[in-house]
Design a protein that fits this description.
The chain has 77 residues and is of the alpha+beta class. It is built from two helices and two strands.
Length: 77
């Protein structure tokens, strides 16, 4: 348990380049900010996603959600 106003130190071997999400599995907690993204070995991660690709993925999700009747109330994490 992390006390209010406290801090946490995490040590791990950096041997898996990429973007990694640490988050709480209680949905509304994630919506309240209980999520953290770590970028490991940034220089080793190829730059394969540009803004146009990302925007296209978001557009496809919105179209799918509208067709399927999905109502997203939180971040989706």
């Amino acid at each position: 348990m992390l006390p209010e106003g406290g801090y946490l130190i995490i040590a791990f071997q950096q041997d898996n380049p990429g973007a990694w999400l640490l988050h709480c599995h209680v949905g509304w907690h994630t919506s309240q900010g209980f999520a953290l993204q770590l970028l490991e070995q940034v220089g080793s991660v190829p730059s394969i996603v540009d803004k146009a690709t990302l925007d296209g993925t978001c557009k496809k999700w919105k179209e799918h959600a509208a067709k399927s009747g999905i109502v997203q109330e939180d971040s989706g994490v």
